[in-house]
Amino acid sequence: MSSSSYDIPLPSSLLPSEASPEWNNKADNAWQLTAATLVGLQSVPGLVILYGSMVKRKWAVNSAFMALYAFACVLICWVSWAHRMAFGARLLPFVGAPNHALAEKFLLAKSTIGYFPMADFVFYQFAFAAITLVLLAGSLLGRMNFYAWMMFVPLWLTLSYTVGAFSIWDDDGFLQGKIIDYAGGFVIHLSSGVGGGHSCLSITGYNIEIVTFNLIHSVGPRISQDRQNFPPNNIIHVLGGAGFLWMGWTGFNGGAPFQVGEIASLAIYNTHLCTATSLLVWLTLDMIVYTKSSVIGAVQGMITGLVCITPGAGLVDPWAAVLMGALSGSIPWYTMMVLHKKSAFFQSVDDTLGVFHTHAVAGLLGGILSGVFAKPDLLRIMYQDTNYCPGLFYTFFKGEVDHGFRQIWYQLLGAGFIIVWNVVITSLICILISRIVDLRMKEEDLEVGDDAAHGEEAYALWGDGERMRIPLRLHIGPTIPSLCRKRFSIPLTRKEGE
């Protein structure tokens, strides 16, 4: 097609070509690839750094490696069969037929959602699936057998995540058009928090949390000394990993509309507004109750804000995002810092990084609040021909309160489905794996940590037995002999343990 076919001549760089067909919107294509990369960066290196730094030093390698392995494994499974189960031809009302997503004809055709190649959509959805499994891992750090984790990842992706994604997001899913889940509060976060303690919220939201509790029960708690004393090994790196997670959420929520438009801009704006509010509220509560400004607490408040806004990021006004941030910084704070310490049930559940509270509680909260504050105009712009009921708040002004309560009912129905499905499926997966390998590491290996699991340690401070040259500065005359005398008893070379 030549430029004369248009009313206004276009630059040659914008004209259709064999490499960029007429249906391909170059701006949407560029943004979708960028958004997918940002979501990927949340896992690698974001959560790899966060997990490796937030745990006890002896578990740094194992925790980071669980996240890295899950990211790689999910990609292979996703393109081999899982993508079509989540976004393919309907097999059952809640899942698609498994098929590969590797053919050039399929990947270079127009996406079913958006004006860009299907390869963009497959990669973007892979990044969502991967972070769901990585989030789930946060509940199991410090005791799960790595070989069991290697088996768990593909099984849970196939039997749990794809079902939630298809049911809520795919056009043929039985909950599609009913549940407001803008970017995965139910599909990603809820599932990670309930299943493993953190595997319930978005399938990752609702799904993630369910899996967490289920897995925690199956794998068992950490050893007693780790539960009593489990300090972060590098708080500065914790902040670095948290930064990747926060900034990466720009792609997480900004890419969900699958186009560069008003909804994407609003979603990004609301995401950061809610997150900052949640962090400050959590920090304020820590200072009031414990008289200390906790860095780890601030990171937890950041995460709950990100999770809470996800189901409605592009569908609520900024004032509602602030309110959601205030609630996500206070309600999960109460369940984690007060209720958890008083409840015998919570005390019996060893959720290593508190995923249940940061993802299950915050994810469920965000899902319900999205049903309350979803604005009719924004729903129409995002979904066009839609059957979604307006948020409960707006129905009071139109005399349609019954429609608002109907939407709340749908939100609770979606949460219930994700929770029940993940509890059942995760239990069956754990039973199956336990027949093959132990879900939990051996007790003697739990005492050692990384070296027992992988034969590697995060920090080899003394070279692990090799002969080391003593720094020359040790031979400089001491200014204060009483403080430096012991240094002269060290030989020029030594072996560790000598």
Please characterize this protein's 3D structure:
The chain has 498 residues and is mainly α. The protein has one domain (22-454): Ammonium transporter AmtB like domains (Ammonium transporter fold), CATH 1.10.3430. Helices cover 61% and strands 4% of the residues. It is built from 20 helices and 6 strands. The protein has helices at 26-54, 60-87, 104-107, 118-137, 146-169, 190-194, 208-219, 224-228, 235-254, 262-290, 295-309, 318-342, 344-348, 355-373, 376-383, 392-398, 401-434, 443-448, 450-454, 481-484; strands at 90-92, 95-96, 188-189, 195-202, 468-469, 493-494. The strands form 3 sheets. A two-stranded antiparallel ribbon has the order 1-2. Strands 3-4 form a two-stranded antiparallel ribbon. Strand 1 and strand 2 (95-96) form a beta hairpin. Helix 1 runs antiparallel to helix 9, helix 10 (262-290) packs parallel to helix 12 and helix 11 (295-309) packs parallel to helix 14. The chain is globular. The N and C termini lie far apart (79 Å). The model is unreliable at 197-210 and 463-498 (pLDDT under 50). This is Ammonium transporter AmtB-like domain-containing protein. Keywords: Membrane, Transmembrane, Transmembrane helix. GO terms for molecular function: ammonium channel activity. It is a multi-pass membrane protein. The chain crosses the membrane at residues 30-52, 59-81, 121-141, 147-169, 235-252, 264-283, 295-313, 319-340, 352-374, 408-433.
